[in-house]
Amino acid sequence: MDFVLWVSRVMHVVSAVVWMGGLIFMNAVLNPVLRHQGDMPSSKALSLYRRFFPFLWSSLWTMLVTGTFMALLSPRFLGFDLSTTWGQLLAAKTGLFVLLLIVSWQAVAVVRRIEAFMESDARQAEAWNRTFETLVRRSIVLGIASFLCAAGMAVA
Ligand code: HEM
Questions:
Q1: What are the residues whose beta carbons fall under 8 Å from the beta carbon of 54, sequence distance 6 or more?
Q2: Could you tell me the pTM of the whole model?
Q3: Cβ(86)–Cβ(76) under 8 Å?
Q4: Which residue from 129, 143, 153, 150 is spatially nearest to 21, judged by alpha carbons?
């Protein structure tokens, strides 16, 4: 069982790094370069976002499955009894995860909107692209808060 827990922790952390790393790269490198080169919104930008979405969903689902597995097997998991710091941080992280799912779902829907307006209304496409950039930043903030909860759980 130790091996399974070890693999779960590795998959959990790697998924968090792939997901968070991808979003930070998108926000700090990709989008500024695309915007500077006048390629936002563009079909190139949309292809790059769509290429990232399978990584986003596979990371999020892997984090959910491995996190639930680690929680259920942890002697510190007391169900809905949140009397311990570890339990409170796990609950907070689970809540953040639900928010992350919602923001990720919104981001996918917004990319469809950008696509819909690309040919017909450049101003609308630009407005939805700005919304997408805001959702990426919002995900990063939620992700940092999740990492802080994880670090707190490790020392609780
Ligand atoms: C429903 C969602 C989640 C659940 C149920 C969950 C659950 C857990 C559990 C039980 C552990 C082990 C804690 C321990 O051994 O004391 C853990 C570790 C960790 N979690 Fe999550 N987690 C979730 C989401 C996330 C998210 C969204 C992130 C980051 C973006 C994250 C990052 C981490 C990290 C980095 C660790 C490793 C900490 C260490 O090894 O010290 N988790 N998680």
A1: none
A2: 0.92
A3: yes
A4: 143
Going by the DSSP 8-state scheme, the letter that residue 71 receives in this structure is H
Q: What's the gap in Å between 130 CA and the centre of ligand 1?
A: 31
- Chain position carrying tokens 């949140």: 82
Token match 């692209």: residue? 129
Query: 46: which residues sit within 8 A by CB, 6+ positions away?
Result: 111, 114, 115, 118
Nearest CA to ligand 1 atom 8: 67
Residue 115 CA to ligand 1 center (angstroms) comes to: 35
Distance 33 CA to ligand 1 centre (A): 32
Token reading at 9: 């922790």
The owner of tokens 């995900």 is 139
Using pLDDT thresholds of 50, 70 and 90, give the confidence band for residue 1.
confident
Q: What is the mean pLDDT of residues 16-21?
A: 96
